[in-house]
Amino acid sequence: MFTTLTEENYLKAIYHISQSSGTDVSTNAIAKQIDAKASSVTDMLKKLADKNLITYIKYKGVNLTEKGRQAAVYIIRKHRLWEVFLVDKLNFSWDEVHDVAEQLEHIKSQKLISELDAFLDFPTHDPHGDPIPDENGQIQRTNKIMLSQAQIGNSYTCVGVIDSSSEFLKYLDKHQIGIGTQIQVEAIEEFDHSMSLKINTKIMVMSKAITNNIYVKSI
Amino acid sequence: MFTTLTEENYLKAIYHISQSSGTDVSTNAIAKQIDAKASSVTDMLKKLADKNLITYIKYKGVNLTEKGRQAAVYIIRKHRLWEVFLVDKLNFSWDEVHDVAEQLEHIKSQKLISELDAFLDFPTHDPHGDPIPDENGQIQRTNKIMLSQAQIGNSYTCVGVIDSSSEFLKYLDKHQIGIGTQIQVEAIEEFDHSMSLKINTKIMVMSKAITNNIYVKSI
DNA sequence: CTCTATTTTTAGATATGTCTAAAAATAATT
DNA sequence: AATTATTTTTAGACATATCTAAAAATAGAG
């Protein structure tokens, strides 16, 4: 069934919120994510419920139906594939891709996406380390943790970021941190939980605001 | 200045009509091209005139301003570059690209287009042989003629098509005719102006309905 | 368990882009 | 030149997606 660009953005928002905050997504949470007023959200929720993309109980929040989840995940798949395209083929940096991918994700063509996938050699992760759902909507789960949860003395590889804002990504670029970068935890400051990290042979200190936004995997 | 997707489609339509039928594009001609009612077109023309994209005199038809022409040509540039991408990189055939390019042409990102252009190695023509406007809106004019205007005994190269419909392009595919195909005019039937052509060493007869839709260049 | 604060929904308005039906202007015909 | 036909525009309505302001429901605090 046909979904409008706006509907797709709502589905994506609901999906992302339910990923981080569990079930029963609130109207206000969606309004904040979409940057719209709660009343506008309520209107759209009725529409999405009519289309069986969400289950919606007044005052109780919403959940995606299987159909809605499939739709949301497919949009995310498209978004992330386009991000890979932009970085790998068109020389975009990882802080430049979001706005363009946000537009490209709404292009409707099955063949376009399957061919793009093949052209990019079936990538499994986007430039920010986020997994790319497969054509059946399956998402590979990795055993990543937030850098803030890392243990003293252990070594890790950066596998992703949470905050994908241009500002944060530029901060990482400046300190030569990217997907695949090796990080060793030298010390953790009890007071503010800031970390001393060995990165590219140099030691640097990161606040919890930073380490909360970096995903790492033990090595 | 910001242009909506709908405005862009109107500008493109006006541009294409004025290319084939000269100045003072009529409301009805636009309505037909856009597949909308004349009253809807009138509404949009007022809007485009307010934005200085067209000059519009009631009952007299419209013309693109320089600003409008630039906007239209840029959309066409984007459309044709995406068509090249789809055919050259994603294995689309030339009869499959139109609908997808129609969506992709509205993506807004200067960098995307300049990088795509470079990635495709600065193509000069799209898969149907239409010239790709450069970044300044300049369009290369070629001395092509319609195959129906070709002379007996002369040899030509196919350089483009007029009708880009899937049906017509599939007809050409079936007879192994594409951009670059050599065509020699063996005979012309006076009665219906059908042509006997030597193509790929075989002789075939084409009606004027066909030869009117193929561009060729003398060799 | 009330009362207050917050969240959510409803009601009504606005902007975009579309339509139908009728009116106005232009073009064509006799 | 007058009448008819066609084109174009206006007027008013409708659908989508949004907003503000007010009402209703839920959650939180004492």
Question: What distinguishing features does this structure have?
Answer:
homodimer; about 220 residues; Arc Repressor Mutant, subunit A; SH3 type barrels; six-stranded antiparallel beta sheet; DNA-binding
Offer a concise description of the structure.
The structure is a homodimer of 219-residue chains. Chain A is built from eight helices and eight strands, in the order αααββαααββαβββαβ. Chain A has 219 residues and is α+β, with helices and mostly antiparallel strands.
Please report the number of helical segments of chain A.
8
Shape of chain A: globular
* The CATH H-level homologous superfamily of one domain in chain A: Ferrous iron transport protein A (FeoA)
CATH arch. level architecture of one domain in chain A: Roll
CATH class group of one domain in chain A: Mainly Beta
The proportion of residues forming helix of chain A, as a percent range, comes to 40-55%
Secondary structure: number of strands of chain A: 8
Helix-strand sequence of chain A: HHHEEHHHEEHEEEHE
End-to-end separation of chain A: 45 Å
Low-confidence stretches of chain A: none
The radius of gyration computed from the alpha-carbon positions of chain A, rounded to a whole number of angstroms, is: 19 Å
Which class best fits the helix and strand makeup of chain A? alpha+beta
* Largest interface: pair, residues per side: A-B, 18 and 18 residues
Query: Approximately what portion of the residues of chain A adopt beta-strand conformation?
Result: 15-25%
For the largest beta-sheet of chain A, the strand count, sense and barrel status come to:
6 strands, antiparallel
What is the fold-level CATH name, i.e. the topology of one domain in chain A?
A: SH3 type barrels
Oligomer: homodimer
